[in-house]
Structure formats: structure tokens, C-alpha cells
Amino acid sequence: MEFIKKSSYEKAETSEETEQTVKDILKNIRSHGDEAVKEYEKKFGKSERTSIRLSEEEIEIAIRELTDEEKHLIDNVVKRVSEFAQAQLDCLLPLDKEFGDGIRLGHKVIPVETVGTYVPGGRYPLLSSGPMVAAPAKVAGVKKIIACSPANYNGSIHPAVIYGLKKSGVSEIYAIGGAQAIGAMAYGTETLPQVDVISGPGNRFVAEAKRQVFGEVGIDLVAGPSEVVVFADESTNPELVAVDLLAQAEHDPNARAILISTSKKMADKTLEEVNLLLETFNENSPAHESWERLGEIIVVESVEEGISVCNKIAGEHLHLHLKNNKDIIDQIYNYGSLFIGANSSVVFSDKVSGTNHTLPTNRGGRYTGGLWVGSYVKVATFQEITGAGVDYLATHSSRQSEIEGLEGHHLSAFKRKSN
Asked: Is the pLDDT confidence value at 53 over 70?
């Protein structure tokens, strides 16, 4: 394995300062509700809003700013994300089965009641961000969906974000950002209801707040800056690889773009293409810093070694630019989402293909997938024991409880025996 370009990446650890800052914010919001939220919005978001919730009139006025084309694009995102989420939900079937005479066991698929979605303000108003987190919740059957997003557009939220949230089934929208938004949703305030699950990406303060409130509420996952791993061989087009790397690098100065190649010639050519393309990017694009600090190109000796490196990195997006992609897809198992073939652009998923773009980073792909309709439902078991099943289970349970020294357990089981 050879590094043509090596990054300075180190897995991010939550700093003590960030952890304590978030802890103080959450404690204050839990104690003082709306007052604390407004205090932090003024301090961190420079927001002077007197109402943290967007009124229906404010929402309608904002939506009127959008063109028909913008609305059509967002409508299509909502439609495709919802259709894919519905197809996923259709796979989650209830279970009701006899496991022996008189022993009926199963599970129900139950939507959570209230979901809080977080949509980052970011550098650009990303049209897909709202639908990605909210539309699957609506498909899941969640009764109440609320959303928080920073008030960084003329004292409110960008109209495109507002429209996407409304089309996705959000009933209440709040102009709150950062850790204070997570705290408000987790604990509830005078204005904002407490939720059952919080979803959506954000900066390090949002991520840390989600970590700290987990248990009080459920969360989807903790997602950091974007990552892409492109695994390529000599058959691919270096220019396509270069644009795929830079498409993710431009998300954030801390985004990671990694090329793993079996061909040194192709790797060298890709590096040339990246440098040429960067000359055409806006000088303020995060892609410059991201690629300089964290961009990486690795040449491996074989496809097998490349597979091993891919599984070790467990990147958020894994894009296969190989001649025989389908021969190896069952050997790669650590990633957030898999993109098979040079034309299966990660950008398609970022925007509109239908799969969710909220995905695990920082090697989270080793143990979880991304946000999906299943993030908003509970698979809860049930049991009904009758007839011969009572005697069978009571005999086993009472004897096991005696051995374990659990008198109450023994009696609860023994009293149900017929003789």
C-alpha cells in the first residue's frame, strides 16, 4: 500500500470544552425553557426573534418567495424519498406465530408519537435536507413532526427549507439552531413540545447535544462531516473520480475525500485532475481546505487489499469505480451507503434518488446504517400464553427461578401450574 497523498486526519474526539459548553446549555434549557433558548439564540445565532416558532403567516410569506422550478425540485425530492421510505416500511412486517401449543409470540411495528427533526443552516440552503429527515417520519406514521433550523436567513429560515419541511409533513417549525435546538426538543419548553426521537445532522455542538440527551429521547445517529471513499481501478475515468471526490469535499472544511486505487497511473492522473478542477472553484469553497488537509489517495496492490482498506475506513459513502463492481459487493460490509458503478454518483443520493443522505461517519458504518423509516418505528414484542403452554413454561420457569434463588419469580410461575 502506497500513499500518493496522505491526510492529516485524526478521528475527532469531543473536546472537554465542547462537552462542558453543551452540558451547560442543556442544563439551562431544562431549567428555564424558552427564556434560555432565546438567550442562546441571541448569543450564538445573533437572532433577535421574539417568537421562536414560525407562524403560518410567516411560512406562507416565505414560500411565496420560491419559484415554481424550486418548488418542483423540492416536490420531487419529497416524492422520491417518501416512495423509498414506503418500500422500506413494507419490508417491516408484523409477526404473530405459535411457538408451541398455547404459546403465541410476535411483534408489532409501532410508529413513535412525536419526532423532532434538525435541519442545519449551513453555508447553503440544501433543498433536500428537510425532506430527508422529515418525509420518512411521515411515511412511518408519526403523529406529530416538528422541525428546528437556525434563523440565518433574514431573521428566519430559508424559504426552500420551510417549503421542504411543510411538504414532508412537519406541523411546527422553530427558528432555533445548535445545541439549544436539541435541548429544547429533548426536554420541551413552554412553546416547544418534548419529542420522542431527534433526527438530523449538525455541527459538533449539535452532535454532542444528541449524545448527551440520548436516553431522555431516542436519536437516529451521531453524524459528522461528510466522507466519500472512491474505490477505483485502471478502467475508470480519472476526471469522474476527481469530481466525485470534490463534490463531497465542498460540503465542509473537515470533509474527507479518499481515493483507493489499484492503478498508480490512474491515481496520479486523478490527483492532476483534482488540482486543475480546484483552480476553477470559488476561492471560498470549503473544498480547498478539505482537500489540502484531509484529501487522501492510496494505491493498493490488489482488489483484495483495496477491499480490506475500504472495510477498515468504513466511509460514509463508498463509491465503486471498478470494472467488475458486482464481483466484490458482498465482500465489502462497512459503509454508510454503497454506490455501485462509476455513474452512480453520490450526488444523486445527496439530492433526489430516494435513499437517505443522513449517514454514519467516523467509522460508524461498522455498526449502523443511516437514517431510515425504521428510525421512527418501534418493533415491540407481545406474548399470549394459554392452555398447555402455561404448564410447560411454568414448570421450566419455576424450577429455573428456584436454582437462581428468585423466590418471587418462582411463585409467579408456580402459581400458574395446573397441578
From this structure: yes
Residue 176 within a domain: yes
**Contact predicate 118/408, CB 8 Å:** no
Tens digit of each residue's pLDDT (9 = 90 or more) over 352-406: 999 999 999 999 999 999 999 999 999 999 999 999 999 999 999 999 999 999 9
Q: Which residue has the cell 496520479?
A: 268
Active site residue 316: yes
Q: Tell me, what's the pLDDT at 12? A: 59
Residues 413/398, Cβ–Cβ less than 8 Å:
yes
Phi and psi (nearest 5°) for 256?
A: -115, 130
Per the structure, the count of domains in the chain is: 3
Residue 2 lies in a domain: no
Q: What is the CATH number of the domain that holds 236?
A: 3.40.50.1980
CB contact burial 25-43 (16+ within 10 A = b; e otherwise)? bbebbbeebbebbbebbee
Distances in whole angstroms, Cα of residue 381 to Cα of each of 51, 108, 219: 42, 6, 21
Does any domain span residue 366?
yes
In contact, 318 and 340? CB cutoff 8 Å: no
Whether the CB-CB separation of 384 and 368 falls below 8 Å is answered with no
* pLDDT tens digit sequence for 264-282: 999 999 999 999 999 999 9
Q: Which of 316, 319, 321, 357 is an active site residue?
A: 316
Same domain, 271 and 215: no
Choice among 317, 319, 321, 410 that is catalytic: 317
Write out pLDDT tens, residues 123-156.
Answer: 667 889 999 999 999 999 999 999 999 999 999 9
Specify if 3 maps to a domain. no
Range(s) of the domain holding residue 278: 225-370
Q: How far is residue 376's CA from residue 358's CA, in Å, rounded to a whole number?
A: 14
Question: Is-contact 306 231, C-beta < 8 A?
Answer: yes
